[in-house]
Amino acid sequence: MVVLFLVLWSSLRAKPDGYTLLSFAAPILINSHMDPVEFSADSFEPVIIIVNDPCYILVRKDAPWKDLREYVEYAKQNPGKITIGNGGAGGGTHLAALAFESFAKIKLTHVPFEGGGPAVTALVGGHINSYMGAAPEGLANVDSGQLRILGVFGSKRLDKYPDVPTAKEQGFNFQFGMWRGVAGQRGTPKEIVDRLHTIFYRAMRDPEFQKKARELSLTLDYKGPASFAKFIKDYDKYYENLIKSNKLGNKYKY
After folding, report:
1. What is the reported pLDDT for 2?
2. For the chain, which residues score pLDDT lower than 50?
3. Which CATH number fits domain 53-170: 1.20.81.30, 1.10.10.1800, 3.30.420.40, 3.40.190.10?
């Protein structure tokens, strides 16, 4: 978290000339609503979205739930009994779990960890019942047969796991992902933004880049400057409402 704010601090104070760029991702918007910080969604100039990885729920191989429907049904009958880990309180996967909990009208017990790695380790060890993750978290454990994916919160199935249905296919019209892109400083000239966009877009189309993305189960999801800007605006409001409704952070008074 400290590193994130140092990077943001440096980016905000750099000249808007295209030479200082930011890996713009979901946690930046989330943090802008969790704490009283110096930046907001309007502090940056969107260039391109590269990845939007759908979240998914992982359980141990021997878990009693075969799919998302059984998981939700059990949670409804046993409020709070299912524990679900996340990569940190107020982080992206925590918000994903809270959002699905609200959507499915269930009660889960949320367990925060210092990152996705420790949470996956706890799940493998049987210390928690489930984990809300996003690629590539826990997928090596899925490949080794230790864990299973109950459902994918994306518009389509993961290429690497074509047998795992989406949440929508299981009756839950719910999507949530961890997206990442590139942004510059607010005020960066349009011609520079367009030039940067072209560079990154060409990189996205490179066969070697796409091959590596498939190996990591990353979901490439292109959006240019205009569509990225609208995407940020929509998600900024979504995160704000989600954080307020769950009374998280210390920015807003509850």
Report:
1. 43
2. 1-6
3. 3.40.190.10
Distance CA 98, CA 243 (A): 9
d(CA 146, CA 39): 41
Distance (Å, whole) CA 111 – CA 190 = 44
142: how many CB neighbours lie within 10 A of its CB?
19
**CA torsion, ordered 204, 49, 34, 10, to nearest 10 deg:** 70
**Token code pair at residue 73:** 């049904």
Half-sphere exposure of 80 (CA within 13 A, CB side): 0
- Residue 86 three-state SS: strand
For residue 103, how far is the Cα from the chain centroid? 17
Domains of the chain, by residue range, sit at 53-170
CA gap 219, 178 in Å, rounded: 10
Candidates 153, 127, 136; CA nearest to 214 is 136
What does the H/E/C string look like for 8-51? HHHHHCCCCCCCCCEEEEHHHHHHHHHCCCCCCHHHEEEEEEEE
H helical segments located in 169-206: 190-204
* Other Cβ atoms within 10 Å of 6 Cβ, number: 10
Task: Measure the CA–CA gap between 223 and 177, rounded to whole angstroms.
Answer: 15
Q: Which tens digit of pLDDT belongs to each residue from 156-206?
A: 999 899 999 999 999 999 999 999 999 999 999 999 999 999 999 999 999
Which token pair is 72? 């939700």
Task: Determine phi and psi for 135, rounding to 5 degrees.
Answer: -55, 140
